[in-house]
Amino acid sequence: MRRFSAHMVYVAVVLPLLCGCRKDLCYDHESHSFSVKTDVAASWEQEWERTYEVDWEQEWNAAWNHGYDELRPEVSEGIRGVVYNPDGRFVENNLPAEGGRLPMSEGVHSLLFYNNDTEYIVFSGLSASATATATTRTLTRSGFKELHGDERTVNPPDMLYGCYMEEHFAERTLEAVELPVVMRPLTYTYLIRYEFRKGVKYVALARGALAGMAESVYLKDGHTGPEAATVMFDCTVEDFGAEAQVQSFGVPDYPGDHYVRGGEDERRYSLNLEVRMRNGKFKTFEFDVTGQVKGQPRGGVIVVKGLEISDEEGGGVGGGEPAGGHSVYRIRIFRTGCDRSVDGTADRQKRKHNADGIYSSGRYDSSDRGRCNRIRHYKCSGILL
Q: Residue 264's domain is classified under what CATH number?
């Protein structure tokens, strides 16, 4: 009886003490530890063109189908961060569009960021920041007559953003360190307008190509490679003719030592339009747009005028493309698409779109969705041009 009473006293005294000493377990040691904690805070520069010879935001034609701001690209769905270590190794992580925790070791790193939701872009050389480039996939089109015989024909690239930091010192801290990252465009949009003088009522379908554009872009600083490519695209048929919003990397080798806007630059830029008429016949127009593109190396507006389809060409009912029924017309366009002269070159250089300076400054991967990230103006049909 005495032994039982002693046991009961022990339980009554010791058990509350044991319960009173209990502590909640910590399951997130990293957030409270002395370690490297880098939190990316991303912002997006939603520009579709850069101002050079024409300030399109100021010179915009209100009669056009779109407002200037309607062409601004959307924020991408996610970011891929590449951490380059001093020993030559690199590590990739995916982050949501707003940013997030970017794992890295203590020390000095170079950091590269680009959006990870592209469909047609092909990345290469990512093992080193100096060689990291983006290009786009080859596209062939039946019956297409090459504008520049030595160029690869390609899809328009997806919207691509990037940011590069040459040095980031990561150190151990108790609190997270915020890292601001500005994602700036690496692809730009050309609004292309084909304005008919006659016969637009006969046009059923239209598609085009822009030759002489950059085949690749360097992610580190946004300069384009020296090789040229022909960008293929679909058009919408409008009451004035045809129109397309075409994304590209801009002109080749820009900015670069070999880029000259004057007559010494031997590069040429060509544009075509292939229309299928309601009678089943085809007609192709070709244009020299060198003057317009040289003045707009990173997006802008290209306008060609005076296209005609005669009543003889568009009339009647056909069952397809007849032999000898595919006509080609060549037109050279010397002036910019802006209908008004633009003065004040020095003043234009001060405007906010001057883009000669582009850069300085997880586990979410939206690229797996396989979504169609074509130019916003188009409806995704799942069929390549």
A: 2.60.40.2100
Give, as one character, the DSSP assignment of residue 367: G
> How does pLDDT run across 249-299, given as a tens digit for each residue?
999 999 865 455 555 668 999 999 999 999 999 999 999 999 999 999 999
Beta bridge partners of 99: 41
* Amino acid (1-letter code) at residue 160: L
Q: Which of 39-53, 158-172, 303-317, 369-383 has the lowest mean pLDDT?
A: 369-383
**Residue-range definition of the domain harbouring residue 168:** 29-369
Give a yes or no: residue 289 inside a domain.
yes
Cβ(229)–Cβ(178) under 8 Å? no
Domains identified in the chain, total number: 1
Residue 2 lies in a domain: no
**Is 79 a member of any domain?**
yes
- Cα distances (Å, whole numbers) of residue 21 to 10, 125, 313: 17, 57, 94
Q: Considering the entire predicted model, what is its pTM?
A: 0.76
Cα–Cα dist 95/87, whole Å: 24
Tokens 């939603």 correspond to what residue? Answer: 46
Q: Which of 226, 204, 228 is nearest to 277 (CA)?
A: 204
Lookup: tokens for 33: 């530890």
Question: Which of 292-328 are b and which e, b meaning 16 or more Cβ less than 10 Å from the residue's Cβ?
Answer: bbbbbbbbbbbbbbebebeeebbeeeeeeeeeeeeee
Is 17 within a domain? Answer: no
Which of 241, 246, 180, 176 lies closest to 205, judged by CA? Answer: 241
